[in-house]
Amino acid sequence: MDKLLGGQIGLEDFIFAHVKGQRKEVEVFKSEDALGLTITDNGAGYAFIKRIKEGSVIDHIQLISVGDMIEAINGQSLLGCRHYEVARLLKELPRGRTFTLKLTEPRKAFDMIGQRSGGGRPGSGAQLGTGRGTLRLRSRGPATVEDLPSAFEEKAIEKVDDLLESYMGIRDTELAATMVELGKDKRNPDELAEALDERLGDFAFPDEFVFDVWGAIGDAKVGRY
Known about the structure:
Elements: E1 20-29, E2 37-41, E3 47-52, E4 69-73, E5 76-77, H1 83-92, E6 98-106, E7 133-136, E8 144-147, H2 151-168, H3 173-183, H4 189-200, H5 207-221
Antiparallel strand pairs: 1-6, 2-3, 4-5, 4-6, 7-8
């Protein structure tokens, strides 16, 4: 059991079994602002590469693969960091400079996502639940049955999740759902910004991102899908 990377596995946050394999250090030249990585974590302090965008900076480095655990950036340990913290560190690295990734690849895994993607959303599987509710398994706490989102909320969550990937390199439907819940009754972007700062201030979302989230929620409200 000490070989397992993480003590808990969340259905949404951690989508493949990971057993420690080979460690590797890879030098990456950041030629573009966006590296093409989508990061996830297992809720227990380990961040993983969830997706690599086709044609991106990382896509051209064959030593880096979906499923790799990101152990350190430039010698800074990332153990204990959430996926959005890792994504933020990668985003803040200066363009035109070389940095070092310390990775651990999985020795055994059953893959539920494509190794390389064209940047679209992963294939949507069937939800566990009834027509009135859905079963949500969490990395911490008990499983709960929650009401399914409305058609508006579902589309808004999808659009905000896309924005999270575009701006931060993460996909997090729970975070997107929280943002939609906070923003659906707000009258303007300033009110949304205040609500996000109060509830999710640690993320330090840039103004342009908040404005795009406001627009995405507004589009979903009026059916502009």
